[in-house]
Amino acid sequence: MWKRFIKEYLTFSRKDRLGIIVLVSLITLSLCTPLIFPLLRKQAPADQESILKKVDQLNSISKDSFLPVSEKQFFSREKSKNPDHYVLFYFDPNEATLDDWIRLGISEKVASTILKYREKGGRFHSPEDLNKIYTLSKRDVERLIPYARIRQKENVIDRPYHSSETPKPEFTESKYYGKNPVRFDINLADTSQWKTLPGIGSKLSARIVNFREKLGGFVSPEQVGETRFLPDSTFQKIKPYLFFEYDGIRKINVNSATVDELKAHPYLSFNIANAIVQYREQHGSFHEINDLKRIQIIDEKLFGRIRPYLEIR
Questions:
Q1: DSSP output for 231-298
Q2: Residue 285 forms part of a structural domain
Q3: How many Å apart are CA 171 and CA 154, to the nearest integer?
Q4: Higher pLDDT residue, 174 or 238?
Q5: Pick from 279, 141, 227, 248: which is nearest to 185 by CA?
Q6: DSSP code at position 85
Q7: pLDDT digits over 162-214, tens only?
Q8: How many CB atoms lie within 10 A of CB 100?
């Protein structure tokens, strides 16, 4: 019986032996390739000329480039319009030009939004006010704040006036300050401006601004009424003083955003955010915003609310 077993199961034909030899050869070759390949590669000689050139460039940098600069004059080591190759220098966000913002590493589109913000009456009262620009990433804000220098304007109301002096125009920080409320853009107003409205105190003004920041900007005055703990009766009183014009809305790229980034938006719950990411992983990138309607739990009402805050890139 053993002889029969050996003959039937352990005896190889000529074809079997040839197959085994080929298989063993391939395995041996695959194991040896990583050891042989480095020996076959030619080591590229170091580009000594390029290295020496970079050393010379470093040595040629003037020490003056690292000295403090005054508020009236900006110094930089290099001028570049490529946002990936920026230079940092002291600047006043209320006076910086388009070229200044680009040199600081801000894209031309975002820089234009900042200029538009200023043209419509927006003003930076402190470096932290850079957070008002919704299209400016938090990373850029943190990078720029240490270099922002706000030029303080003199308030002549607080100075004694002498008849020998030449009269100067009065200056206040905001044209919205005062006893009587003045209409303002809901995306440009700070907490002090909100507090000029009837029924709005420090807490409510802070809640409105925080809600606006989480949204990425208001797209209609009615959204102000969604602020937590803001009574509808109070909202109806302040509504006539509100208008929407500034359109620098911060948007989320649905083709790259994570679940955490999506659910951070007030209009997107975890279930909605997770459904968007799962759909993207199963079906590939979204080609247009309307593709979100294919997700079953996103109805027309929800789609209308979130559409202004999402984009395809």
A1: -HHHHHHHGGGEE--------EETTT--HHHHHTSTT--HHHHHHHHHHHHHH-S-SSGGGGGGSTT-
A2: yes
A3: 7
A4: 238
A5: 248
A6: S
A7: 434 433 333 333 333 345 678 999 999 999 999 999 999 999 999 999 999 99
A8: 17
Distance of CA 163 to the CA centre of its chain: 52
Domain that holds residue 90: 67-147
Of 144, 78, 142, nearest to 111 by C-alpha is 144
Beta bridge partners of 253: 311
Residue 245: CB partners within 8 Å, gap ≥ 6? 120, 185, 187
* Helical ranges in the chain per DSSP H: 2-9, 14-40, 48-59, 98-103, 108-119, 138-144, 191-194, 202-215, 232-238, 259-263, 270-283, 300-306
Helix (H, G, I), strand (E, B) or coil at 148: strand
CA distance 242 to 158: 30
**Domain end among 126, 147, 168:** 147
Query: Which CATH number fits the domain that encloses residue 259?
Result: 1.10.150.280
CA atoms within 13 A of residue 83's CA, in its CB half-sphere = 11
Q: How many structural domains is the chain composed of?
A: 2
pLDDT tens digits for 32-87? Answer: 777 776 665 554 444 555 665 665 665 554 444 444 443 334 434 344 444 556 78
* Residue environment code for 78-93, b if the CB has 16+ CB neighbours within 10 A, otherwise e: eeeeebeebeebbbeb
Among 105, 129, 147, the domain-final residue is: 147
User: What pLDDT, on the 0 to 100 scale, is given for residue 3?
Assistant: 67
- pTM of this prediction? 0.50
Average pLDDT, the chain: 79
CA atoms of 272 and 301, how far apart (whole Å): 13
Average pLDDT over residues 229-243: 94
Alpha-helical (H) ranges within 132-200 are 138-144, 191-194
Would 275 be classed as within a structural domain? Answer: yes
Residue 225 lies in a domain: no
Both structure tokens of 269: 């719950």
Domain assignment present for residue 106? The answer is yes
